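Z., the sequence and structure:
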Amino acid sequence: MPRRFSIVDIAGKVGGKDKKPDRVLYARKGGEEAGGVSTNLGGEKISVEDACNLKTMCWGGPNIVPRPEWIKTGVNFNEPEQLYAFGLKAMKGATKAFQLVVQAYILKHLLFEGKSAKKAAKNQSKGGHNKYADVSKKRGSDAGWESTLLRPNEMIQRDILSGAIAELLWRCGDKERAVIAVPEANPVFEPPVRFSIDGLTEKLHLFRCTKEAEVLSCMKKHIYFFMQEKAGGLACLLYSIVLSKGWTDLKSDMQDQGDLPLIDTEDKITLCLSNLMLTGSATPYLHNGIMSADDDDATNFEFGDGKVGITSRNEIGFLFWERDEETTQEMNLGSRLKTPVLPIWVTCINENWGVLFNPNRDLMKSYSAENRFQLFYFSNTETKAKKDTVLTIDTRGNKIGNQMNDMDDFDEVVEDPVEKAIQSKWEGAMVDWQGIPMYV
């Protein structure tokens, strides 16, 4: 068995006798004016064949009805201008893992793209290269302009989500194409017997884009639907990712796992899906390049001479820890994901997903900056601490094993799985939680 990992209702009621009966309202947030969208959304109505393929690729078959947390949930931020305003309300299971991969793109656009990022860069330049190397000397992690940056207002939330999704879809489409799936009020085809109606998939309209700017423009037009709390934005984003990749390329990327769904029956996402979102390739492997098959390997390699992993250094990284050293090493996580271009890492730690990040984009360019630095950690886990979780990473000290040898009672040593994941990138690193009880 391959490894797995824990990762529309549309308001059709319109008041007023002057309103057309075939119009549907997408909810606006924060006092935005509500606008009607015709059931004739434009784009292309999804075909029966594509709808069946979508449900098969995502859930395992056209007769499967997705869980309510997919088809009744949008892509929602925490309250604007408050603690964790930069973060999505990722709750549990596969939807949480899925959203925390999206979260990495959101952080990229908040910290390093757009107007907010330009302002951040200006403030950072005033503080010098190591502005974010170590902020522990401040009065808690909430001091300084970095705290303001991580509390975006509603408009910024909307803009960074639009940019994040547009980039994600463009990457999944090999930077050649993207497809945005949005439902209308009514089904667009007569469902066959083998297809189970779920209230969303049979209503989709597809918007195909062949230019990057076109993707962003289309995304901005429909962003209110994706952000609506109970409109199925999560499932539509997943569908858009799969459609942007295309059936043939997706199955090819998945290699020996091409017949398996991206979301399994235990409500976990596969590495095929997380890698597709992070890298644009739906490989089920984490190693660098191509790993040749052993003579005694029972796997039938029909897609080349060996297992194709991560083919180039990625902008966003990935760190992994599963129970113990032996189990973790079996995944053979390579340096191309451990050492990304930007200081953002999606984490999968004991099947719990999160994101580590540092607002200094030059962190990975300086070995000296990596001696002692800080990483923000976010997994939308509720804690008693009313502040951002900021971890101080010190790579200069002795390895953990040396410290443990000096202790009289080994039973009192509590293993920190987040620290273990960080040590897979920075060997021997010490992690200080700044007084916050450790969590994943």
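The longest helix spans residues 93-112. The mean pLDDT is 85.

Let me know what you think.
H.
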